[in-house]
Design brief:
With about 400 residues, the protein is an alpha+beta fold. The chain contains eight helices and eight strands. Helix content is about 60%, strand content about 20%. It starts with a helix and ends with a helix.
């Protein structure tokens, strides 16, 4: 598998890129984005299955599966006869023979080779080559989807980890608020309702921590499944530092996406295969020429009879021949096959146009979502500063 494809896919689909801070030492339990991608490529079950399918397609497109090589087979046989014979000659004495034995040995080596089959073998071989290319694209699609799923879960673990820190800080603030409310109540500056409301907030914050902790544990299990690790292994952290992809780099990815999109490449490959199917079907109109050859050895052992003595006959020799077959009319099967192959090619072309339109839409939606989320992020940064200032004054 080409790992360069993976990183291109990561940058295309991932709006945020997690990066480690070079100034801070990483913990032993910290899983970086590069580490999880590398492990997924090596251990993910879906990627392994896709890789095996590529190996199958590679075997299918080899010369051994092309039909270009001759077939050679050996045949051998042995037969034994045991008969009783009664001979009744006219005007003569009957001859009754019992236990007449006969044996026959035979062996041969036969060679068959197709010299010409209407070019069907050629186009079928090219079709197998293109199917191998298609299997590589399917494997690439599996890898891209797996990495997309992996990073989505990775980002969710990071988000929930940050939320846990925020919720724990919020709980601490609520607990301090209860203390202040109790002091105010003791000094007569507020009533007991303020204390009760503060305690309700503590309980609410505690519930939020419990629920978020459970979500974080579940998400870590999801990440372990993708990485083919022990699902109960939750003693790890992910990198929560964030860098945004530069706008120029995003524009470069978007320009190449229409040409590198794996669904479009698969559609184009299917069109090529459909074109080969048409040519394979047309080969039914042409004759087939074959070459045959064999070497044989035979031995027959016959028992003596009333009129002939026993004998042993041995023969061996070579034979060769050429044959031609031509279906002048096959009931219209070839014609129907060609028409169906043409219709299938048209369907593949229509599907490619549909996919191209969907890709254009997805790119536009992804870019719009990215720009909106980035704007919201910038606004929220300002809100954080304002709220922090208000909190400091209130505290």
């Amino acid at each position: 598998m080409n790992t360069k494809i993976i990183y291109v896919t990561v940058f295309f689909f991932g709006w945020l890129s997690f990066s480690a801070n070079a100034q801070e030492p990483l913990q032993d339990s910290l899983l970086t984005k590069e580490e999880v991608i590398s492990r997924a490529l090596d251990s993910n079950f879906g990627i392994k299955i896709a890789s095996n399918n590529v190996d199958i397609a590679e075997n299918n497109q080899s010369i051994l599966n092309s039909g270009y090589l001759p077939s050679l087979r050996a045949v051998g046989g042995y037969s034994y006869d045991l008969n009783d014979r009664l001979t009744e000659p006219e005007g003569g004495e009957n001859v009754d023979q019992r236990g007449i034995e006969g044996e026959a040995y035979s062996t041969s080596i036969n060679l068959d080779y197709t010299l010409f089959d209407g070019l069907g073998r050629l186009y079928n071989y090219k079709s197998l080559k293109e199917q191998y290319n298609l299997s590589q694209l399917e494997a690439r699609e599996t890898i891209e989807n797996t990495i997309l799923q992996l990073l989505t879960v990775y980002y969710e673990v990071a988000r929930l980890s940050q939320n846990m820190e925020v919720l724990e800080e919020t709980l601490q603030i609520s607990q301090e608020r209860v203390k202040r409310a109790q002091y105010q109540f003791e000094y007569g500056q507020s009533n007991n309702l303020v204390v009760l409301n503060a305690k309700v907030d503590v309980n609410t914050d505690s519930i939020n921590i419990i629920e978020t902790r459970q979500q974080l544990q579940n998400t870590k299990r999801d990440l372990n499944v993708i990485l083919n690790r022990d699902i109960n292994n939750r003693e790890f952290q992910v990198d929560t530092l964030v860098d945004f992809i530069p706008q120029l780099q995003i524009e470069s990815f978007l320009e190449q996406s229409a040409y590198n999109n794996v669904s479009l490449l698969q559609a184009q490959s299917n069109i090529i295969i459909s074109d080969y199917d048409i040519k394979v079907s047309k080969s039914g109109y042409l004759p087939t020429v074959g070459l045959t050859g064999s070497y044989g050895w035979n031995r027959n052992i016959s028992a003596a009879t009333a009129f002939f003595p026993g004998s042993t006959t041995t023969t061996d020799g070579l034979s060769a021949g050429i044959n031609l077959s031509w279906d002048l009319f096959d009931g219209g099967q070839t014609s129907v096959a060609i028409q169906n192959a043409k219709i299938n090619k048209e369907n593949q072309q229509l599907q490619k146009k549909q996919i191209a339109l969907q890709v254009e839409r997805d790119i536009a939606n992804a870019l719009g979502n990215y720009e909106n989320k980035l704007y919201i992020y910038r606004v929220q940064e300002e809100n954080v500063l304002t709220n922090q200032d208000n909190f400091n004054r209130s505290e």
